[in-house]
Amino acid sequence: MDKEWMCNSRESETYVVGVDMFLNFAFRNVVTRWGEILCPCKDCVNGMFQSRIVCRDHLIIKGFMPNYTVWRVHGEALASSSVQNENDNEPGVASAGMHGMVNDIFVSRSGDQSVQVANFYKYMNDAGRPLYPECKTETKLSFVVWLFNLKCMSKWTDKSFNLLLGKLKQILPDGKTLPANLYETKKMIGDLGFSYEKIDACPNDCMLYWREDSKLDLCKVCNKSR
Fold first, then answer.
1. 81-90, 116-125, 139-148: the lowest-pLDDT one
2. How many other C-beta atoms are found inside a 10 Å radius of the C-beta of residue 19?
3. Do 9 and 15 meet the contact criterion of CB atoms below 8 Å apart?
4. 49: part of which helix (H) or strand (E)?
5. pLDDT tens profile 175-215
6. What range(s) does the Transposase-associated domain occupy (predicted)?
7. Which of 17, 105, 127, 175 suits a disulfide with 133, CB 3.0-4.6 Å?
C-alpha cells in the first residue's frame, strides 16, 4: 500500500485524504472497542483508544507517530487474509496487533534458539489470551502493554501503579490474567525488548527533538524555545 502521502504536509489535501483512507482501512480490518481504535498519533502512540472523529483530528493536527509505516496494530498484517471480520470471536484489535508485534520482535533476534522458541510461543499465547473470559477487546499482552505505556506517559508512581493493578484484580471477573504487580509487568515488557524514551516536542507540535534534531534549542518551524 502506498504510504508516500504520510510524508506530505498535514495541511495538504493529499495528507487529509490519506488519513481518511487509513481510518477506513483500520475500521474495516480490526474489531473496535466501543467504536474506538488505538490512535497512532504522536501523543497517543497506539496506547489510547479514540473515536474516529478524535483520531482523525489527532492525525491531522499532530501527525502519525514516527516510523509507523506498517499499520500492524490496525490490521495491515492480516488484511490480505480473511482471518478477522465483524463476526469473529477473537479479541480483535488487540490480537491482530499483538501477534504481528510478537512475531516481528522474535524474528529480528539472535541467540539461543531453544529459548527464543519457548518465549515466542509463551508470548504468542498471551497475545491471544483474553484479559478475562468472554473479553472480546483486550488480550493479556495488549492490556499490559497499554497500561504500562500509560504509566510512563502519565508519570505514575510505582506505588500508584501497584494500587491500580490491585484494584483491577478485585473488580475484573474471575479468570483475569493481569500480572500481580509492577515487577511482573516490567519483566513481561523487558522480555519483549521494549524500552521507553521520552522525546521533547515543540510546544506548538511543529516537530520532535529527535534523531538529528535532538540537540536543538529552538523549533526549526516556528522558532519557539524548547
1. 81-90
2. 21
3. yes
4. strand 49-51
5. 888 888 998 888 877 766 555 567 788 888 788 888 888 88
6. 3-76
7. 175
Residue 200 three-state SS? coil
- CA distances (Å), origin 147, targets 15, 131, 150: 31, 12, 5
Instruction: Please tell me whether residues 60 and 125 are part of one structural domain.
Output: no
H or E stretch at 36 = strand 36-38
Residues 23, 7: one domain? yes
Q: In this structure, are strands 36-38 and 49-51 parallel, antiparallel, or unpaired?
A: antiparallel
Count other Cβ atoms within 10 Å, centred on residue 217: 7
User: Could you give the CA distance from residue 208 to residue 219 in angstroms, rounded to a whole number?
Assistant: 9
Query: Which range marks the domain in which residue 169 is found?
Result: 92-195
Can you tell me whether residue 155 is helix, strand or coil? coil
Both 114 and 50 in a single domain? no
Helix (H, G, I), strand (E, B) or coil at 33: strand
Q: pLDDT tens for residues 127-167?
A: 567 888 888 777 777 788 888 888 877 888 999 999 999 99
Question: What's the pTM?
Answer: 0.41
* Three cell numbers, residue 1: 500500500
For residue 38, give the DSSP letter.
E
* CA atoms of 219 and 203, how far apart (whole Å): 9
For residues 26 and 115, membership in a common domain is answered with no
